[in-house]
Give the backbone structure.
Amino acid sequence: MALKMESKTIGGVTVVRCIGRIIFGDEAAALRSTLKDILSTSKKVLLDLSEVNYIDSGGLGTLVGVYSSARSAGADIKLTGLSQRVRDVLQITKLVTVFEVYDSEQKALAAFH
Amino acid sequence: MAIGSASNPGLERTSGAFPSLILVQAQEQRSLVLDHSPFSIGRKIDKDLVIADPRVSRDHALITSEDGAFYVADQGSKHGTFVNGERVERQKLQRNDRLEFGVRDGAYVIFHPISNTSNTAREFLSQISGLQISTDTTDLEKLTMFLDAARKLNTTGVLDEILVTVADTTLKLTRAERAFVFLKTEDGSLRLAAGRNSKGEVLIDDTTISHSILDEALHSASEFLVTDTSQSLDLAGRHSIVAYDLRTVICIPLRKPQVQARREVTAITAPEQIGTDIIGALYVDSRFASRDISSVSNDILRAIATEAAQLVENARLVQAEEAARRYQQELAIASSIQQRLMEVHIPEVPFARMSGRNLQCKEIGGDFYDAVSTEDHFAVFLVDVCGKGVSAALLASTLQGMVYSHLVARMPLAEIVAAVNRFFTQKHLGEKYATMVIARINRSGELEFVNCGHVPPLVVSNHKVMRPEAGNLPVGLLADATYESSHLQLQQGDRLLLVTDGVTEAENARGDFYENERLEATAAQSSSLDEILASLAKFCGGTPLNDDCTVVELVYTGLT
């Protein structure tokens, strides 16, 4: 599988660092189940995508799915560290307007408080 | 082991399409074609089937065909008409039903809805019994040959035939009274798959089968279990043995053949292993009143266990193969329907023309385009459904139908995509969505378009390229998404180019993408879609496409 996830907690926010590709199949499924587990205990999640070099249409669907179900469950989920490629995809699909995106981890963490 | 087989000198072969009746009289067997209705049976000489027995009435019964089914109706006979041992007035006939007219111990008739030349295992057996294939060939071995032949002919329903024949053959070998074949279902329980008695009658599951012995056999590691109730002291809890007066029960677990081979090597089977390789069970029994079958030789039982298991397993494989083949056929039909739906018929209008190209990578992709013309408008749409394969194709067809019909109804573009989004999100298709562009132009060159998360269209005007960035969210992702369309004025000769991201993300061997810049430069210089595709192919070199590439061009030719 081409996606690894590491999580740490900073000031009550669970920061999930994704490394690799978010693509349809095992990767998207892993992202979904990992975030589901985290969201069952933490209501503040920051997704660090700085080491995600590729996201395909299926991966994007999963990201939006996780994002909107977390939101409707009352959780706060933000994105940071968008690579140019991921930024482009979010720009084309206009999903950049849906996600809360921050330039740095610091700014994102501050926004939770 | 050589098995004596009954000879059937009277067996006739009939041709083709009609059902048949097999008349069994003493040692003779004759086949009658049911090629007309009504088919009369009686003692009178003018009947279709004449049975010269005083207990048969002169006008005894009729077999009629109604809507493809066959019925037997008694004609007020003195001694009655019987189907599978039960007296009937009128009854619908099922495959292998046994019909008797007045006489319960004489001639009987077996009903076959399919012609005599079809794959009836028992008929095959009786046919080849006459041939001297090899004196050493057992009936079960012959059945294996039958199975091979059936597989080659892609015949259906092999398993049922095999099971009934296994039951019949086992009865013949053991000289028992009843035989049942059970198959293990997916949940691990046993399901009765065939039941026969020594008279060839169909038996169903009832309380007279000793399920306790069946269970015991399945949980033991032995090849077969012979229970002689006259020797057994503990009959507590064995209701059916007592109730049905069973004398001997032989139960043979059917094990997967290859596992059985391994079992011989490892003499001790771990307890948790027992039962996992079972595919079914053969159960035969006899009552006290009947003959004693407890002395059936162990060799015969062992042979039945091995051969029957092999046969049943092979029949299951044939059935699975057949199911897979039919499934493939269904898929092929679905695929051809899908292709016909996706076939684009470009309408001709005096003020615009369009063309489109689609390069598909390996499997069915989610790209498609279509065009619709109404009285004064011409509309094109290009859609990229996320994912690939059958699921993407299904969504694509639904989407195409919705967009197409809404365009025909001349709905505003923003409303069309909002309706599609609503439909997709309400159906909870789970992370399935699509990006698309719909563009509609009128005679005066007024262009309206709506972009839903798609690569921005290119407007090529006088070798200059413009990219209108206005856009909306994809459809199917978010229920509360709102959509807006944009407007542009085209001049005569202006071109609108729609592409999917397969084009901009096409890679070359170095891992570079084709990108918007190359696309725009090529679009500005080229005059046809083929030039754009040629540029794309040149860029990629030999690197295969990762995604479908679709390009659609709409040219405003103006009113001339």
